[in-house]
Amino acid sequence: MTKHIKYLFPIIILLALTALNCNKGLSPTAVNENTKPGFSGTIIFKGSWPTDVTRTYLVVFQDPLVSASDFNLSNLQYLSTEIPYGATQVDYTSLDSAYINIGAGEYSYVAVAQQKTANLSLQRKDWFVVGVYYTNDDTTQPGKLKIPQNKLVQNINIICDFNNPPPQPPGGQ
After folding, report:
1. Would strands 89-93 and 55-61 be described as parallel, antiparallel, or unpaired?
2. What's the rounded Cα separation, in Å, for the pair 124 and 106?
3. Residue 47: DSSP 8-state
């Protein structure tokens, strides 16, 4: 009898460890409840950068930019750290450092914008959009960005073609 107990003890330990480590079983891709909401992708720059650009950012607005007054701090939901001048490609994630972090929600305008002023300005007339996020290659209107809770949305890619810039939102140059 003691011979069988000697073999039974390791089996009980193995079953106990398995039960502790498999609390969700074989569930399909469980959501990590600690994942922060956000988005990631690639920004590609084509052509020559304008020589008078002083700063470049990835920006996200909650509501569409249908008038110059929509370009405001309460509508601005994400502001990346500065994109280096002369970059040809930037792989990014909103979970990296940013001046304004984004949360879960639906957003109407995702763009790369540049400024040519010496000092940082929050006036629409001082910004020029060089790239816009479009869904399914539909360049007739900006794409919607939907970020669920606890999810990093991938492939929010933007092409900035300096020789063929996108339509400018109202109030710009």
Report:
1. unpaired
2. 22
3. S
Residue with tokens 């939901």: 77
173: confidence class by pLDDT, cuts 50, 70, 90: low
Query: What does the alpha-carbon distance between residue 99 and residue 82 come to, in Å, rounded to a whole number?
Result: 9
Instruction: Write out pLDDT tens, residues 116-144.
Output: 999 888 888 999 999 999 998 788 899 99
| DSSP-derived pairing of the beta strands 38-46 and 152-153 | parallel
What pLDDT digit, counting tens, does each position of 48-107 carry? 999 999 999 999 999 999 998 899 999 999 999 999 999 999 999 999 878 888 999 999
The backbone torsions φ and ψ at residue 21, rounded to the nearest 5 degrees and listed phi first, read: -90, -10
Q: What pLDDT is recorded for position 171? A: 77
Helix, strand or coil for residue 70? Answer: helix
Alpha helices in the chain (DSSP H): 2-21
> What is the set of domains in the chain, with CATH numbers?
35-161 (2.60.40)
Number of Cβ atoms within 10 Å of the Cβ of 121: 14
* Predicted model pTM: 0.78
Nearest to 46, CA basis, from 130, 132, 156: 130
Question: How far apart are the C-alpha atoms of 85 and 50, rounded to whole Å?
Answer: 10
C-alpha neighbours within 13 Å on the C-beta side of residue 25: 2
